[in-house]
Design a protein that fits this description.
23% of the residues lie in helices and 34% in strands. The chain has helices spanning 15-23, 57-61, 97-105, 128-133, 172-183, 208-214, 216-219, and strands at 3-9, 32-35, 43-50, 65-73, 75-76, 87-88, 109-113, 122-123, 126-127, 143-156, 159-166, 187-197, 200-201. Strands 1, 2, 3, 4, 7, 10, 11, 12 and 13 form a nine-stranded mixed sheet that branches. A two-stranded antiparallel sheet has the order 5-6. Strand 10 and strand 11 form a beta hairpin.
């Protein structure tokens, strides 16, 4: 049993928990993995790899991705998402629509991005988020990431809804942080839904309930090596 599952990850579950749920539907000898972690609060396309398809992990992690996101302006959080306490920016003035659109243009292309302190990147062998939780947030270095496009869906203070197309290693939480800094009001990621990983689209994704009802074998997609 080899192939790829396009799972619509629900909120509140880690990517590892989704893999565990899939494993329960398969014989113990079958390998299961995933390509590209989604934070527990996020939803959307999670590529789950079965059997020999686990060898395709690098390929899928390098595929273009698309997200629909809501960013809240005028506040920040330590984790840059809704899983930690909100810190409201005092007297933050709502930026104009023109100012928002102008700032967004600066985040398209090859950009320098500093990963969030609460991330899985390892610092001397220790995940950065573990150091941050111990009150020792690491100083992570900026790196180049690719943002292919940002579409403004809606702006109504204090939220911005965006569609973001990007490449591997791009942190949407960091884009939210940097947009808030560029506007001078602070910001964090309020909601995140991944709608595409390469050929895997959200319109074709299955919920875990649908997967259980239909069975894994009937839901597998086969992609070339």
């Amino acid at each position: 049993m080899d192939g790829v599952l396009n799972i619509d990850k629900p909120p509140g579950l880690s990517s590892a928990a989704v893999v565990t749920s899939v494993k329960r539907l398969l014989p113990r000898t079958v390998k299961v993995g995933h390509a590209g972690t989604l934070d527990p609060f996020a939803t959307g396309v999670l590529v789950v790899l079965i059997g020999n398809a686990t060898r395709l992990a690098e390929r899928f992690m390098s595929e273009p991705k698309q997200y629909i996101t809501t960013i809240k302006l005028g506040a920040t959080t330590d984790t840059l998402d809704p899983t930690s306490h909100e810190i409201v920016a005092a007297a933050a003035a709502p930026p104009s629509s023109d100012a928002v659109e102008q700032v967004l243009r600066h985040f398209v292309g090859q950009i320098q991005q500093t990963p969030p302190a609460y991330s899985a990147l390892k610092v001397r062998g220790v995940p950065a988020y573990k150091l941050a939780r111990q009150g020792r947030p690491p100083q992570l270095q900026p790196r180049t990431v690719s943002v292919y496009g940002i579409e403004l869906i809606r702006y109504a203070w204090p939220t911005i809804d965006l569609t973001i197309d990007c490449g591997r290693g791009t942190y949407i939480r960091a884009i939210a942080r940097d947009i808030g800094q560029a506007l001078g009001v602070g910001a964090y990621l309020l909601a995140l839904r991944r709608t595409r990983v390469g050929p895997c689209l959200i319109k074709d994704a299955l919920t875990l309930d649908q997967l259980q009802q239909r069975g894994v074998e009937k839901c597998l997609c086969i992609f070339g090596r």
